[in-house]
């Protein structure tokens, strides 16, 4: 075997090393099927509400209501994730999400769906996600060894972004040929895959905390730990800024597909899938470099490429060029999120992991709906391109601020 072939073989093995754990393999493939359905629903839901209302403001409303529960429930959910068996929690949460998908599918197929139905169900799904995210993120440590944790986190993003590639494209085609109701119904069926995967896992018996304080005291302990840990605090603050400003272009894609690019539901699906292609490439890159100690430098690269490419996207009117640019946007965004997630989890204490990821999830999923609401309002007033240009300029300014005022970011491992 040549040196180049040997190097490639080693990198390939390193990229997927977490899959040697049986429980993680079950999780990976079960979640992949479920997430494809989730992205089918997400792309169809945004396009449906735009069709019903013809208002970009409603795209902001749906993003805001889907993320609002993160502010209300996520910290509490992190405490629950540290107190109860995480597999059991995930089984309940995934089953609830499945029921919501079937309700939306039924309303749509029956022809009685209204914008308020979509908004209400988006809020309820946001409640489920508020409990799901810290539980799911902290559950990874139960499925893999500590040395494979960074790789498993990166593969989780690979799984997520693979679904972003497949789900919106399939959803766009299904929307055009079968109607949005079947996108929601197929999503409901897809939850059976992850429910089965969780049921088949063989895990170590759950050991409850030895000393149980009140839920409030546990919650405060987790928040205080993040507040007093300078590096984790810095990472999570930076993530919040990126989440608030970086989701703007994604929020507006249904309107952008129609008003700027002159397309339809398939165009929306193609754009979301192109973003997923870039995200997948980024996740695989981070997975293959999981044991290398330069994640801070990778984060810095992403912090500049994301706003630069977002600005280019706002200026193009060619679908082909827009697809190419949004691949880069997906690559940059996932590079930022994955490196942040890996660095936070590597630094967090095991007994506080659920609560730390609760704070992480609160900021990540709590900041993005505020950004969605703002860009929806702005786009309704001044148009989609000026709105995206403004968010790109603010992101670029923040990248320069971090580079100059927070040089430690570049040294993190």
Summarize the structure in words.
This protein is mostly helical and 413 residues long. The protein has one domain (16-201, 215-411): Growth Hormone, Chain: A, CATH 1.20.1250. The chain has 16 helices and no strands. The mean pLDDT is 82.
Describe what is shown at a glance.
By secondary structure, the chain is mostly helical.
Instruction: Classify the secondary structure makeup into a structural class.
Output: mainly alpha
> What shape does the CA trace take?
globular
Quickly give the CATH architecture: Up-down Bundle
Considering the protein shown, what is the CATH homologous superfamily? Answer: MFS general substrate transporter like domains
Largest sheet: none
Question: What portion of residues is helical?
Answer: over 70%
**Mean pLDDT reading:** 82
Q: Provide the CATH topology.
A: Growth Hormone, Chain: A
Count of extended strands: 0
Strand content: under 5%
Amino-to-carboxy terminus distance: 32 Å
Order of helices and strands: HHHHHHHHHHHHHHHH
CATH class annotation: Mainly Alpha
Radius of gyration: 20 Å
**Low-confidence sequence ranges:** none
Total discrete domains: 1
Number of helices: 16
Q: What is the element layout, followed by pairings?
A:
Layout: H1 3-15, H2 22-53, H3 56-83, H4 86-109, H5 115-143, H6 149-177, H7 180-200, H8 215-228, H9 230-246, H10 248-251, H11 253-260, H12 265-288, H13 295-315, H14 319-347, H15 353-382, H16 384-405
Helix pairs in contact: 1-12, 2-3, 2-5, 2-6, 2-7, 3-5, 3-8, 3-15, 4-5, 4-7, 5-15, 6-7, 6-12, 6-14, 9-14, 9-15, 9-16, 11-12, 12-14, 13-14, 13-16, 15-16
